Description:
This protein is an all-alpha fold. The protein folds into 2 domains: about 5-180, no CATH class; about 190-470, no CATH class. Helix content is about 70%, strand content about 0%. Helix 4 packs antiparallel against helix 5, helix 6 (about 150-160) crosses helix 7 (about 170-180) and helix 13 (about 325-350) packs antiparallel against helix 14 (about 360-380). The longest helix is centred in the N-terminal third of the chain and has 38 residues, at about 70-105. The protein is globular and about 65 Å long.
Amino acid sequence: MNFVSYVFLAFYGVVFSLYWLLPHRKQNLLLLIASYVFYGWWDWRFLSLIIFSSIFDFVCGKLLAHIKSRRSRQLVLSCSIVANIGLLGIFKYFDFFSASFARLCSLIGWNFSTPLLSVMLPVGISFYTFQTLSYTIDVYRGQLKPTHRLLDFMLYVSFFPQLVAGPIERARSLLPQILLPRTYSGQQVASGMTLALIGFFKKMVISDNMAVVVDSVYEARNPDGLAVLVGTWCFAFQIYCDFSGYTDIARGISRMLGIHICENFRLPYFAVSPSEFWQRWHISLSTWLRDYVYVPLGGNRNGYLATLRNLMITMLLGGLWHGASGHFIVWGAYHGGLLILYRVVESRSRRQTNVNADAGITRWLQAVIYFQLTCLGWLLFRAETTSQAADLFLALFQFGPIVDTQDLSPAAFRLVFLAVPLICFQVYQFQCNRMEPWQNWPVTVQAVFYSILFYLIVVFGSPTTNEFIYFQF
């Protein structure tokens, strides 16, 4: 069930109308049923996976709270990790690693046939798997007390606004909101509607219109270098508005239900370094990888070279999380390389000078430079295969006939028409250091702003609605 559909609007309208008529415990039951209906709309058979994962980790949490033996607690945690990663591996990675192993064997002269499962990837499995894993790990670490209500925990795992594309919520944040009663607030509902409206605008007006340019470039046989450049810039805005648009809608409709989920984006294209970028982009995933991969590996505690190694391993796993394909691993390695490069350069520059280089025009120049580096990574991300990524990278340095012998001016116009207003507004957000500055505007100004957004969605919304990009992960 896509957020950008009349079916979802009708579905949410029914849920919202009934929700505030019910007491707390029945609200939770309604949300759980609604979440399973929402998820089962794609394929009801995969409900068994999310139900199994929920019950299994609920039991693991209870056991971790009662078992005192360190070895037994480690065994319970291991069972949780193996079960969750095992399911993720079977459905998402088995065929990739099986085929890769067969190709490796052929390179050394072995004719080795490996089985392929060829199963469909359950939507959102990467998100809810990491969500349940964080619960058992936090309980094991003593950072969280396990919940004693199975249905509440099942709702935590399957809460429909953020179920299929995040943010990846931590139990310490979301579970208390599920366990405690919620009160209706007209101001909260209005705030949520505004945030959702902005999400719809990002998705329908910017992302889906950018997709037309991106698809024409990345599906062409021999794209020109200028076409690849424009297409990659367009993809940078497409994926940002697609994913952050989903997050805005998810946070908005959750807020209307009295539940607050975490901020997942904070003006990522204004970052001046890879570390700052990952503090602004897909924040829930980057902090998850930091807390459950990078820090357990040793973080920056075991020396300079060990820190660089841990950064690379973490980013490789982050790339693999996005998909079972070589180009995602290369994308993760690329960002790991950027983190290492910037860390080496910054450590040397700090030894040489104490001048603050982050002020004024210098910072914006650094942001522009890093945006280009980010876009190079997006080329790797958007390509279907590593070989196509290599071809597109080489095409960047070949300026010949325009893609499909057509003029690129319509694509460039679409890029400027859609991206420049967004950039200007985000500069305003950056300068006032508020992600939702409209909340402080006069009522009349807010009304005009919302009316303009609605008008733009109606008039300039793409006639073709694409699935959200992160549904495939």
